[in-house]
Hints:
Blueprint: H1 5-19, E1 23-29, E2 34-40, E3 44-50, E4 57-61, H2 74-83, E5 87-93, E6 99-107, E7 113-121, E8 128-132, E9 138-141, H3 177-185, H4 193-200, H5 206-216, H6 229-247, H7 256-261, H8 268-278, H9 283-318, H10 321-333, E10 344-348, E11 358-362, H11 369-406, H12 419-430, H13 434-438, E12 459-463, E13 469-473, H14 476-485, E14 491-495, E15 503-505, H15 514-526, E16 536-542, E17 546-547, E18 558-559, E19 563-567, H16 572-576
Antiparallel strand pairs: 1-2, 2-3, 3-4, 5-6, 6-7, 7-8, 8-9, 10-11, 12-13, 13-15, 14-15, 14-16, 16-19, 17-18
Amino acid sequence: MELDYITIRRICREISSLAKSSQIREIIAFGDKSAVLVLRNGHEEALLFSADPKNSRLHLLKPVPSRSQNPDTHFHRIVRHHLEGSIIDDFILIEGERIIELKASRKDFSGDIKSYRFIAELMGRHSNLILLDDNNIILSLVYPKHASESNPRDLRVGKSYSFPPQTQRIPLKAYSQDDFLKFLFDAEKECLWGKLILESFTGVTPGFIRFISEHAQVSDKIPMDELSKDLAIQLHKAYLTALERLRQDRLFPPFDNLLSVNAFDDYPINRAVAQYYSSLLSKEDIEKRETTWKKTVEAKIKSLERLLSNLSRDSEKAHEAEKYKLMGDLIFAFLDRFDGGRREAEVENIFKPETDEKVKIRLLPAKNAIETAQEYHKRAKRMRRGEKEISSHLEETQKQLEKFQTILKPPEWISDASDEKFQKALDDVKGGKTDKIIRKKMETEPKIELPRNLRGENIHHYRSNEGHDIFVGGNDRANEVLFKWGQPDDYWLHVKNMPGSHVLIPRRGEAIEFDTILFAAQIAVFHSQAKGSNKVTVDYTIVKYVNKPSGATPGFVTYKKEKSVRVDSPDEKSLEKHKIR
């Protein structure tokens, strides 16, 4: 999903002061269509520009990637040659367009000032990253393009650069009900209202449309000739609510929850956007995983089929044990038939006199009759011993083959699993661990355990639906030790202006979904004097903003930079399902 103008504008607003006057310390490849500019301005930040047609975007990246992670292209080498060590003079977002212009300058070897412009056109399938010299000549770019009827610009090295033709869109602002309804009903009748707003207003996103649709309870698939005036009025009210949401500096799906989670970061919008893309697998990635899964399982199935074929042959041979014993016994019974150097004889099967069966016996090469009989008896003994093992192995292999055939179709969870978990599942396939895969839910053991010295304390342990651990102090002493155990970036919650337990969500470098914060807030209400109440205000912040005054009683703290949520007290039975200890 490419970024929209509204989100790009807010990202740029957030990092403009960081970018201006920063030194571009390093240029790092981040795939062949993306580049990372490592900026130094008091501290170090990595700024990603991506011209990926499906995920065109810019945002700060954390941690700074290593140069060895992705190979350089010619584009990266040229940009590095000209921009590394330069100072950013200006950082501009072209009004109404998803185009960022970065102006930088540096001294060359002769001491003269050289100026450059780095253009990021983040427009979905029309995206591009372009480096220009001070004469507006293209030095390098990700996507060279010849001029054509559909593309009047000649985007090639050595050509003069020009911005894309500006799109004529309606400004995103508050309109009266009459003006808004006139805009809707002047449109073509078969046009869907959602698509109409999306393509007509500056910077509108699918998330913006989804918000209006849900808030107005009007499907965005309704064409204009089916849209009544009452529904249009509901859409206008929802549109104004969406504008107010923008005014309050709030994002739309899928970034809204992630923004709340990153609220305590210096660059919350950038971190929210980065977090979304870091967890996003493109369609190609998912298809690649599915192909890898099928090939791995198919290879295992073929291996098992070969093993089954070999075992079947061995099983047939094992059934010949009685035949070899019979021939050995008959040789001993008719030794005289092999006198005079004869190597072959046909004798009566004296063990089945009622059948008049004749058995043809041939001596083994280089062995006499007695040696042949002894060898046949040895073969029979070995075959009897292996027959039981082969039969058991054959049955087990058949069962394993049937299980692998049930997992040939890639399971749904592979699109959401981390690289580590997916690779572990592939290793399980190769190792034949089908039972684990069949029942696999991609759940992990508790990631965070209390240290041994705290396990004797009155501390409750819960786990959210998102898999995050939540710890709650059961008394003042437990509150005290839990607070001291918390790390600076861990989330800390407490019911506002009311006695209650401290609640801690350890992060340990992980992003915490907003749903987990809401669940932890409910736990805080349950473990407070507000238990059983509704619409209770719970404050949350991070541990580094929580302070214990000198000489204060156990469990007493002060805090700042808090955010607040209002939640209902949870049902005890439903809460019990999430309790670990």
